[in-house]
Amino acid sequence: MSKIIKCTILDLSTLLRVTYTGITVNQIRSAHNVRPPRIKYPLWHLQRERAKDDQQLTEDNRAFVKEAVHDKFGMPAVIHGISTYEVRSPLKEDSVERKNVEWHPKLKRTGLIARKLGNYPMWSDNGKSMLATLFQVIDNHVIKYIPPGEFDPPRKPYSCPKHKKELGCLLVGAESADPQYYTKQYCGLFYREGMMPKKILGRFLISPEAALQPGTPLLASHFRPGDFIDIRGKTIDRGFQGVMKRHGFHGLPATHGVTKSHRRGGNIGHGGEKGRVFPGTKMPGHMGNRYRIHKGAEILRINHKYNVIWVKGVASPGETNSIVYLHDTILPLRKHKITPPFPTSKEVEDDQLIDSYKEHMYKFTDPTITFEEEK
Amino acid sequence: MLLRSLKLHIIQCGFAPVVLQVSRTCSNMPLSDTHQSPDNAVSGKQVKSERKLVVPSNSRFIYPEFLPDPKMEWRNSLREKLERLDMIQRRKHIDIPEFYVGSILAVTSSNQHAPNKATRFVGICIQRLGCGLRANITLRNVIKHVGTEIKYQLYDPTIQKIEVLRLEKRLDDELLYLRDAPNEYSTFDENMEAEYLPEGTPVPVNTTLVKLKPRPWRARWERKNMKGLADLELEERFYKRAEELATPWEKYDLMKQYRRTIPEEEQKEIFAEVCSELHEVEVMRKKLKRKKVFVKPTRSS
């Protein structure tokens, strides 16, 4: 009896197999709750730093590798006060064709990557003092231009979907570095354009007319004294802060029976029908370490030797020595009135032109300010 | 080992609270050479080439504002360099002489609202703060029985002239207690004539002890460990509390000292960079001064 049963079971299974192979159902196993990632990172977001390993090279081999790097990319040199490598510039060569497009206010130029150096006072020629913040444009080069059709930004704006379809993307790198210290795929980004890897890689959305050849150096003279710029940077990380420091509340009284709540925010919500805390209520929390833009800052002075820009005010985000991005301002009343260097400025080898000031600024080479008596 | 090297730093470069033995001889040594042989061009050149290496050891007292703020978060070598270049450019147009807290200065500055479009203020320097282009001094005087203080930015382009009427030091680095002292301690004649010290004499130290008015004061001076104050005549409890709050161990905190000062090597680097230009400016000033002295007799006629 048991044998029979066994047989039937076996037969059944074989029978079933036959039937299954006849139908050929291909299983697609997937969890219905897994969605594709929302943010598609751009092509240039690659692993940058290489794992450190001692290659156990001899002194000679080390020197040879260094030499090979210099042969391939360029000799080390100090350009505009920054130790970097000599890079060929297509703007210097005549072979590169440049589009002759007239600038008009709707065109968007590229921006610059700069380092914040700190601040010190400047004076206007009527003796009024003002604090200025210094930014150094650090060895900027164009790495790549991606035209509008190909450029697919990771986060698309909901408000105006047309907006970014008209704009291309310009990759700009700052501060050349030795390729030995970076991964192969990161170096490949630059090698395709014949450049050394850069420590900092930034992206600027530009109109296709303002596109630049890879390898073009970007200088402080891209802007002029008197222009207004937007400065984007990461604010100083202040950690978890109370309401007085974070939002400028006044706190509660120091005396008159107040205990243990001198720096508290006080009431945060309603009772009764609402019975909840409204979203966005100002409360203690993490302060700083987020990107902020200082809009409409005025350029007072530019040093062409060290590529330094003096900007009026001390409100620009970031610590000293932090990286910031400088753009043409988006404030409508402070946009360029005269044609700016378009698409960017050319390198001028003029030893005489070191500093250029905004008009009505006191130049440190000028004599003492004196006022004349009115008659 | 580290501690030992740090200790050396501090002994050499730390700003001692009161430095009594700074003589002007060192700073004027190279200058006096030029006086002796101004005509002999060949020897002058030789001396010049040698001098570039020699940085006067007391530069940090004469030009304290050339040393940057030692706070690490705010430091950037390029900014400091650009600042120094601007300072030297400004110094070519205005003579900022050697002076100390306690010296009596006269500052002439352009003023749009003054009758002659310039004002001159005489007073005692009670505070010297800031580095780089932000360097500033506070002058104090009593004018028409009202204590008056003016804060001047040293590199402000509206300043026309800074004269040292009496070059001397006091026992303290800050004389803010003069605000709580009777008026006679900070009263100086506006028409005071400059007192010249002979070349090479050390800067004299004025050891007057200031007798304060009775409390209330602007600060608890018994806690500040001031050397230029006479007996404060307070109750015992004040001194007791001051002793409780005192931090006498801080002078042994080497790291604190190290962070508060610029290391000697860096100071040397900075002064070596600006030394030659500063020296040129100083020589120019001396020449102008001599010219002025020469012009003086014509005034009497």
UniProtKB/TrEMBL annotation, chain A:
A Pfam family assignment: Ribosomal_L3
Keyword Ribonucleoprotein on entry: yes
Keywords linked to the UniProt accession: Ribonucleoprotein, Ribosomal protein
GO MF, one example: structural constituent of ribosome
GO cellular component: mitochondrial large ribosomal subunit
InterPro entries: Ribosomal_uL3, Ribosomal_uL3_bac/org-type, Transl_B-barrel_sf
Region of interest: Disordered: 251-284
One annotated GO biological process: translation
Database matches in PANTHER family: 50S RIBOSOMAL PROTEIN L3 (PTHR11229), LARGE RIBOSOMAL SUBUNIT PROTEIN UL3M (PTHR11229:SF8)
Similarity comment text for this entry: Belongs to the universal ribosomal protein uL3 family.
This protein's name: Large ribosomal subunit protein uL3m
Source species: Sipha flava (yellow sugarcane aphid)
Gene: MRPL3
UniProtKB/TrEMBL annotation, chain B:
Keywords from the UniProt entry: Mitochondrion, Ribonucleoprotein, Ribosomal protein, Transit peptide
BP-aspect Gene Ontology terms: translation
A GO CC term assigned to this protein in UniProt: mitochondrial large ribosomal subunit
Claim: Transit peptide is one of the keywords in the record: yes
A GO molecular-function annotation: structural constituent of ribosome
Location in or out of the cell: Mitochondrion
Entries under InterPro entries matching the protein: Ribosomal_bL19 (IPR001857), Ribosomal_bL19_sf (IPR038657), Translation_prot_SH3-like_sf (IPR008991)
Family: Belongs to the bacterial ribosomal protein bL19 family.
Identification of the protein by name: Large ribosomal subunit protein bL19m
Origin species: Sipha flava (yellow sugarcane aphid)
